[in-house]
Write a structure and sequence with these properties.
This protein has 224 residues and is an alpha+beta fold. It is built from seven helices and five strands. Strands 1, 2, 3, 4 and 5 form a five-stranded mixed beta sheet that branches.
């Protein structure tokens, strides 16, 4: 981990690659110094900011840590660092999914079919009889698409139960983006209809709804 003084760069960005996609840890104070660990999601560099508190006036004496507490702080920092490593792995997987999402639609055999039917689907309500009838004409392309893309429950025989959390997050983002392709697109309605369509359990449905609400993807947040 690199040690870096805050004065060496001017804004919240990585001093190595200048990316603003950084994770900033919480402040930890030890005696007269405060520090926090920072990592860059773009280049993977990590560094520590230190703040000297010698000039800070405090109404009470500085907190004195026991040896056990100092060891606990160090052990916790190591744990936090490991969690960041694993979360970065999740981030890299999601980043890859975003880069490769629906690439199979850009070539045969899917491209001609989606070029024909996508404009037709735009004017239809998701899940309606007309919508399902339109999908029948796309079946050959859809079969190929589902076979190539694991963010669709149809990708495997187990459906939703055979998906990973990475698959599910890409699926949820796909559903959200799809609402923008319909005049009356509704994320809330999509969640309800897809729960029935794919046999999603109530527990997972609640998790999906909670995620949508937390990300501001619900209908009530669309116009904000």
């Amino acid at each position: 981990m690199h040690d870096l003084n805050l004065k060496e760069y001017k804004k919240w960005q990585c001093p190595f690659c200048e990316s603003e996609d950084i994770d900033i840890g919480g402040m930890v104070d030890v005696h007269t110094q405060v520090f926090r660990d920072i990592s860059c999601n773009s280049c993977g560099q990590r560094w520590t900011e230190y703040f000297n508190l010698d000039s800070v006036q405090s109404p009470t004496a500085p907190r004195q840590y026991t040896q056990e507490e100092l060891e606990c702080i160090e052990a916790t920092k190591e744990h936090i660092d490991r969690v960041r490593v694993f979360l970065r792995e999740v981030y890299m997987h999601l980043r890859s999914r975003g880069r490769d999402h629906d690439k199979s639609k850009l070539q045969d055999p899917e491209l001609p079919v989606f070029a024909e039917y996508t404009p037709k689907l735009k004017g239809l309500t998701y899940g309606s009889d007309e919508y399902r009838e339109c999908l029948k004409g796309m079946q050959t392309a859809l079969d190929h698409h589902y076979k190539e893309n694991s963010h669709h429950p149809e990708f495997n025989k187990a459906g939703i139960d055979g998906m990973t959390l990475i698959d599910i997050m890409e699926m949820l983002a796909d559903w959200r983006a799809a609402t923008e392709r319909h005049a009356n697109g509704s994320m809330d309605d999509s969640l309800v209809k897809n729960q029935e369509r794919f046999g999603i359990s109530d527990q997972l449905a609640n998790i999906l709804q909670n995620t949508v609400d937390a990300l501001g993807w619900g209908d009530k947040d669309r116009d904000k």
